[in-house]
Design goal:
The complex is a heterodimer of chains A (139) and B (233). Chain A has helices spanning 15-28, 40-50, 72-81, 99-107, 120-137, and strands at residues 6-11, 32-37, 60-64, 90-94, 112-115. Chain A is of the alpha/beta class. Chain A has a five-stranded parallel beta sheet, sandwiched between helices. In chain A, helix 4 links the parallel strand 4 and strand 5 (112-115). In chain A, helix 1 (15-28) crosses helix 5 (120-137) and helix 2 packs parallel to helix 3 (72-81). The longest helix of chain A is centred in the C-terminal third of the chain and has 18 residues, at 120-137. The two termini of chain A are 23 Å apart. The model of chain A has no long low-confidence stretch (mean pLDDT 91). By secondary structure, chain B is of the alpha+beta class. Chain B folds into two domains: 8-77; 84-227, Histidine kinase-like ATPase, C-terminal domain (Heat Shock Protein 90), CATH 3.30.565.10. Chain B has helices at residues 8-43, 46-77, 89-99, 101-107, 123-139, 196-206; strands at 85-88, 110-113, 118-121, 147-154, 159-164, 210-215, 221-227. A five-stranded mixed beta sheet of chain B has the order 2-4-5-7-6, covered by helices on one side. Chain B has a two-stranded antiparallel ribbon with strand order 1-3. In chain B, a hairpin with a 5-residue loop joins strand 6 and strand 7 (221-227). In chain B, helix 2 (46-77) packs parallel to helix 6 (196-206) and helix 5 runs antiparallel to helix 6 (196-206). Chain B is globular and about 65 Å long. The chains are: A alpha/beta (139), B alpha+beta (233). The A-B interface holds A 13-17, 19-20, 23, 38-39, 66, 68-69, 95-96, 116-120, 123 and B 25, 28-33, 35-37, 39-40, 55, 58-59, 62, 174, 183-189.
């Protein structure tokens, strides 16, 4: 029986962080398909192109706040206003420890705010966080 | 309520704060990459080592790129440190082209330089300005080899220099952020710290000039910058 893969859209311009996200998901043993957009405009185009495609919709969106072109806040706002993705869980990934950024992300509708840690073990915790976020939205 | 008057010192402090926050963000990302890669290397079996070591080296390389850019920005910031002399601006272009020799060869670029005037300025800083603008023309190239045209025209404001390319262009909606430090339009697929145009703007401002961008024809962009003419010119 084919294992159901989690479909994740990752909007992240830093390829070092893309490497760590992949690693975190693999380490947690989460079967997944990862689509990576390297800037906000690319992510927006991808989402608009897949809005009607019920065969492949992301189960979860990982979103860096500091994206080139269209930033993460604008992208999150677009996601929450869209018909297709307004309920898709979003985890914001960011280096920012500013309470303002955290509050802004949560007010815009992020499910969680993950501050990117500098040590490996803490970053790998992202795998557990993804799993628990998905479990929490399953009806 | 009346609008607050803008105070140059407060504006400068705000600008410095934004710069430092963005610098810390990018440096922290490079540090994270290096540190986690070092941890992975200690845990890795033989097969993984090459991939992880590559991450480590790229983190270090990015840190170096950022630190170099920040240093150059700091240098560009202070007009008092500029050495202003009358000199042929073609020599600044030649310095820049010498530094970009490898990139010009690798991209099979053609650089067409028109008649350029003598100007009063800091030759090293202006060479750096040309290096950033020509370097961007090579970096953001289209499917054809880069064709860069450099020229100058006398206007009422002074000498208007132009650096025209045939590259991928920049959508008008992104032009208002082009000169902001660390604001990049591309991800890691295009190298750079995101400081070249911010530094270029500071260099031009230190010479009491201004810099802007227009669409190229039929493709690419043209960067223009004005430098005041030398006395008696």
């Amino acid at each position: 029986m084919t294992e159901q893969k989690i479909r994740i859209l990752l909007a992240e311009d830093n390829d070092g962080d893309v490497f760590l996200v992949r690693r975190a998901l693999e380490k947690r043993g989460l079967p997944h398909e990862l689509v990576v957009s390297h800037n906000g405009e690319e992510a927006l185009t991808w989402l608009d192109g897949h809005a009607e495609n019920t065969d492949w919709a992301p189960d979860l969106i990982l979103l860096d706040l500091n994206l080139p072109r269209i930033d993460g806040a604008q992208l999150l706002s677009h996601i929450r206003k869209s018909d297709s993705f307004s309920d898709t869980p979003v985890i914001v990934l960011t280096s920012s420890d500013s309470p303002k950024d955290r509050q802004m992300a949560l007010e815009l509708g992020a499910n969680l705010y993950f501050r990117k840690p500098t040590d490996l073990a803490s970053f790998m915790d992202l795998g557990r966080i993804v799993e628990e976020t998905l479990k929490s939205v399953v009806i | 309520m009346p609008a607050q008057e803008s105070h140059p010192e407060i504006e400068l402090l705000n600008e410095m704060q934004r710069f430092l926050r963005a610098a810390v963000h990018d440096l922290r990302a490079a540090q994270r990459r290096t540190g986690t890669a070092a941890e992975l290397l200690l845990q890795a079996g033989d097969q993984e080592r090459e991939a992880v070591a590559a991450q480590l080296l790229q983190g270090l390389s990015k840190t170096e790129e950022l630190l170099t850019g920040i240093g150059r920005y700091a240098t560009a910031l202070t007009p008092a440190s500029y050495a202003i002399h009358l000199f042929p601006s073609i020599s600044a272009v030649r310095f820049a082209l010498a530094h970009l020799e490898n990139e010009i060869r690798e991209t099979s670029a053609t650089i067409d330089v028109g008649d350029l005037p003598d100007i009063a300025g800091d030759r090293n800083r202006l060479a750096e300005l040309f290096e950033h603008l020509i370097g961007n023309a090579l970096k953001f190239r289209g499917p054809d080899p880069p064709a860069v045209e450099i020229g100058a025209r006398r206007t009422a404001e002074g000498w208007r220099f132009s650096v025209k390319d045939n590259g991928i262009g920049i959508a008008p909606k992104y032009r208002d952020r082009l000169f902001i430090p660390f604001r990049r339009l591309h991800g890691a697929e295009v190298p750079g710290a995101g400081l070249g145009l911010a530094i270029s703007q500071k260099i031009v401002a230190a010479h009491r000039g201004r810099i802007w961008i227009e669409d190229g024809s039929p493709s690419g962009v043209t960067f223009f910058f004005i430098l005041p003419a030398a006395d008696g010119d």
